[in-house]
Sequence to fold (255 residues):
Amino acid sequence: MNRVAFEIFGIEIMWYGIIISLGVVAALLLANILAKKKGLNFEVIVDAFLVVFPVSIITARLYYVIFEFENYHSFIDVINIRNGGMAIHGGVIGALISGYLFARYRKINFLEYVDVIMPGVILAQAIGRWGNFMNQEAHGGEVTKEFISRFPEFIQRGMYINGAYYHPTFLYESIWDLLVCIVLVLLALKKKEKDKGIVLAGYAILYSIGRFFIEGLRTDSLMVFGLRTAQIVSLISIILGIILILWIKRKKVHY
Fold:
């Protein structure tokens, strides 16, 4: 696999960055559609994006570096994200915190807006996983030629690394994320006015269910105390999502 898409003035443009950018554009387009359907101001979402997106990139990278700190030997290594090395959980956490603070500053309903944004977030994740494919990362354990032959030829080539075939876990998660995106879009369109936050809760639960099981197949998991960090965070997210749903069903949300 060639990680470099092309060069401009001697600067290598990586497929990873291109694919992540496509995911961001797709997320904004979907948010625009849903915002119009729900009567919300898309310009507010764009303003929030200009704040939230840089923060999420930083927190996604910091989250990854913290758990892989022994592999980074200089500040340049830490800030170089061209070859990957970002954790979606870190990005989402940073985005939600900065988005909440932005909403408080602009005096808008955080949950109302986040509900039309989260379907785009999971769509961006589905697209972004193909950046992992181009980097030949985020894959699972070794598999047989017979197993991998069930997949398209280009997947087989991409998952042939150092003389062996590996589980295309990036693909599993990409497909799961697309399915979750469809569910969240339907939820965003059909939710009742008093159910602000229900899409965010759905994201937390559904994405985390898939991530928990897929993470168990991966060989490059971030670890803490011998446990897979993503699985721990996924379990916590499922619990928080359930708590949020129960809270929404008991009272109207006013902030």
Q: What stands out?
A: Residues 40 and 113 are 8 Å apart (CA to CA). Strands lie at 4-8, 11-14, 142-143, 160-161, 164-166, 223-224, 227-228.
